Amino acid sequence: MVETEKVMRLIAGEITLSEQPGAAIKRWREMFRISQRELAQRLEVGPSVISDYESGRRKSPGTAMIRRIVEALISIDQERGSPFLSKFGPLLTGEIQSKAILSMKDFFDSINAIDLFDILEARVVACEELLDRELYGYTVVDSINAILSFSPLELARLYGSTTQRALIFTKVTTGRSPMIAIRVTTLKPSVVIMHGPRRTDPIAKKLAELERIPMGISRLKTPEEIVERLKDIK
Question: Which candidate, 81, 110, 91, places its Cα nearest to that of 18?
């Protein structure tokens, strides 16, 4: 059975920690397939209030309002028979395990993306100007196993409790497939680091630029070395 309260905390945490809370609210609302009008009615506010939050025209909502929004999304979903919770809940709470995920961790305190690039000896190949971001976690992914075994829904499992994290893909040939997967999903990581390619695929770089996601290539020799280096981050 899905731990509804845990899912609520994960969503609220992701919105609260996001650099653009309004955009995060919009992503989750669309994932739940709930209209602005329906959400507004549940919150007893005008649809323009939701629109203003999502567009950034209105000041970022406080924690009390974020909790109300998340509770509304959950309650509407439950009234519909829990289509979202039944599919995404186990992925968000970690009940589904996958051999494609080599390592995964969320931080209590953030780490700057620049520092992570240094730890993994990664050179920046796209969006260097956006590299000064705070990260609250990382996920190391075996890209071959992910391509072979992941469904579109399971991609959400990569993000743990927040999208403000680094996705680190190992066994990468060019980087095109991971960036295409990111491009077509609703959730987006703060940074992407590839391990394996000797050069960057132009399409992968272009997709990173379109999504405004800093992307780099690690110079470390093996996936095991990447996982070992990451263990020292508290």
Answer: 110
What is the rounded average pLDDT for all residues in the chain? 85
* Residue whose tokens read 């190992």: 170
Give CA 114 to chain center in angstroms.
18
pLDDT for res 1: 42
* pLDDT one-digit tens code per residue, 218-232: 999 999 999 999 987
Q: From the centroid of its chain, how far is CA 229? A: 22
* Nearest in space to 91 (alpha carbons), one of 25, 186, 178, 3: 3
CATH architecture classification, 4-93: Orthogonal Bundle (1.10)
> Residue 105's closest CA among 81, 130, 135, 133?
135
pLDDT in tens, 64-93: 999 999 999 999 999 999 888 876 666 555
Using CA atoms, how far residue 176 sits from 119, 203, 207, in Å, is 24, 6, 9
Q: Where are the beta strands (DSSP E) in 89-213?
A: 101-112, 122-126, 134-142, 166-170, 191-195
Fold of domain 101-230: 3.40.1390
Which whole-number Å values give the CA distances from 74 to 16, 31, 43, 152, in the listed order?
A: 17, 12, 12, 21
Query: What is the residue extent of each domain of the chain?
Result: 4-93, 101-230
* d(C-alpha 29, C-alpha 35), whole Å: 7
Q: Predicted confidence band at 148 (pLDDT cuts at 50, 70, 90)?
A: low
pLDDT given at position 184: 78
The residue length of the chain stands at: 234
Percent of the chain, pLDDT > 90?
Answer: 40
